[in-house]
Amino acid sequence: MNKKKLCIIVPTLKMGGMERVVCLLSNYSVANGFHVSIICLLKSKVAYELDDRVDVIQPKFDYKAGLMGKAKVFFYLTSALLKIKPTVALSFSEVFNPLSIISSRISNVPIYISDRSNPHVNLRSIIQLLRKFIYPFAAGMIAQTQTAKSVALEKKYNKNIAVIANPLRQIEESNIPVNKNIIISVGRLIATKNFSELIDIFSEVDSMKSWELWILGDGPEKNVLQGQINSNGLGDHVKLIGAVKNVDDYLSQATIFAFTSVSEGFPNALSEAIAYPLACIAYNCPAGPSDLIRDNENGFLIPLGDKECYKIHLNTLMINASTRKRIISDYELHREKYHIDNISIKYLSFLFD
Fold first, then answer.
1. Under a CB-based contact definition with an 8 Å cutoff, are residues 317 and 281 in contact?
2. Do 5-167+340-352 and 182-336 show the same overall fold?
3. Domain 182-336 belongs to what topology?
4. Average pLDDT over residues 32-36
């Protein structure tokens, strides 16, 4: 009996939420009898652990933006699909999904697609136009959140849409929680993560200077944020830790996870914090926090931009240990719901059934 062949099309396998999902899904699939190929559209290093049985195909050319660059990727992808002859293809990334659909149709391969950004984000007009006219030719579409599905249906991208969240990575159980007076946040240091506002909120709430705020991640906003910390005399209480591989070592020392992002595709860091478990507070940005947090049950969900409300509820978590204990009490249900096995089964059932 021939194995079912899954081909995943992705821009790169560098570090990122989309890439992590691709690697987790690929590892699960080959471990359960599928043949898996990953076609990278751009050359890159593989940032995550991959089973040796997963075939990774990389282009031999360097990508250059523009029509000629896209044409080169198109012919490379079509050639790879014709050679692999997969049962099903799954393409990630709204920028390349239209191209993947056309290549798959030419190769006579059923293709499913998944957009990964905030569904309300304004992409270039040409990308918007291509999505409108080409997405309906996909066999189906995977949305990360209910909001993303609603937007896709409204824009008539596709009729066959499943909502499948991102899976959790393995939580490192060897880290025994210390639960110090530490508030933690994780993410790239970019404007949409809104760390500047988080620093302001923290400095206004922590009047007794009895807590610390740790921010894990790196990015272009680092110098601006460090300047904000220095100019406000917060150096002893707000730490820019940088990008780290051992995230769990830091989560294990914290008590609260604070999330102030204003735009997400699916907030992996928030999902991991709920699972760890930490008492979580988040702005209800598009999209994802409302899929993960049931307000005042397993976290606090704050209306986007309501800084005063955020301060009140963050202060509640800081001063009230019983509230923190109540909020994290059903973390095992979250772990089960977003376990890699359960999420992968949803993916494979949608793609192959």
1. yes
2. yes
3. Rossmann fold (3.40.50)
4. 97
- The answer to whether 281 and 300 are in contact (CB under 8 A) is yes
The rounded distance, in Å, linking the Cα atoms of 300 and 285 is: 13
Please report where in the chains the tokens 């709204």 appear, as a residue: 94
Confirm if 304 and 285 have CB atoms less than 8 A apart.
Answer: yes
> What span, in angstroms and rounded, lies between the C-alpha atoms of 29 and 21?
12
Domain ranges in the chain are: 5-167+340-352, 182-336
Q: 134 with 113: CB under 8 angstroms?
A: no
What is the mean pLDDT of the segment spanning 30-52? Answer: 94
CATH class of 5-167+340-352: alpha beta
User: Is the pTM value of this prediction over 0.85?
Assistant: yes
**Rg, C-alpha atoms of the chain:** 21
What is d(CA 29, CA 62) in angstroms, rounded to the nearest whole number?
30
**Whether 269 contacts 189, CB under 8 Å:** no
243 torsion bin: left (phi>0), alpha (psi -120 to 50), beta (else): beta
Please report which confidence band the pLDDT of residue 172 belongs to, taking 50, 70 and 90 as the band edges. Answer: confident
Q: Is the pLDDT of residue 1 over 50?
A: no
Strands 35-40 and 300-302, bridge-based pairing: unpaired
